Fold each of these.
Amino acid sequence: MQINFDNFDKLTMGDADFARDLLQIYINELQNYIKEVEEFLTDKDLPKFRLRNHDLRTIVKTLSLDGVQELQEKMKASVSRNAPQEQLEAQGIQMKSLLAQAIEALNVKLAN
């Protein structure tokens, strides 16, 4: 997954300590979201899913995480129309994969 760090670098304005702290926050948030995705999809808890997606929006937009926002929309639509559990599980696996790739890239940035 390609991450565009231009917005992130503008946001942190060259402050290395702030950048490290923010990267760690982003990593933690993405890890938490990965853990929660299964729960959202199993419970089909659309209000909670929408709230967490909203919470994640800043990270997704700041890092231009390709595909994440689109997949969130697909997942929301699937939950809304009560799609088969297999479809929800496949979307959950795809989301976990995308976010795991993002976490890997953030860890690389954090190490530098």
Amino acid sequence: MNILQLFQSEYISIIAGGLGGIVTAWLTQRVLNKRGIFTYSVTHTRVGVTAEDAIFGNVAVSWNGNPVQNLYLSTIEMKNESMNDYENVVVNAFTNDTLMMTEQTQLLDTPNILEWSEKYKNQLHVEPGSNPSEKQWTTYNGQREYIIPIFNRSQSIKITYLNSAKSNEMPSIWLSIAQKGVKLKFRGPQNQILGVPQNQAAFVGVLLGVAVLVALVIFVAELWAVAIAAMTYGLVAQLPGAYAIKAIRRLREAIGG
């Protein structure tokens, strides 16, 4: 069977047509729906802990002269992974088992910081000569609310809190958003390759490998050569998978405008 006869084959036409239809439907659905997806991750780094040890002695941790059981730096990163740009995105950070203290915020790759929302500013407003109420301290130590004037596709924000867990467990700080048509997903720490999660790169790499294997079986007569090529590809399957995902991301951004 020559190449022309191969492409004229009824089975090949059916497979190619089916795959083309799936890809077209997927792209069309993505363009029509354009549902917003934000993802965020949280990492905690212990700064110090108050402890008493018979061998190493006593260690006391304090913040601004006030003793605390422990201190952590918790970093939250949230990314706009959708094909849309958004305005006036309201982001809430909250906890029920952690004392949130000072903060540092940034809209990554810009000199801008995140501003508190007007609603949150009003909640914490203290008249000159007065002191914050207990309710205001509870609000400040338990939640924050920010406004992002413009949040473009592929942009990320970064928030770092100095905090103290109220128990011996790791602190817990979460995000929520108030934005129509946007879903927020939490993602735990992931190993990456070329900026792509390894599990995703491996999955796509395997799919590409199946296509490569089919092509080798069709066009290469020597089975030993097919076996060697397949084994070699298997060793580096994550790389083409990662490049394919990055190419799809660029295509998605181009389609999104």
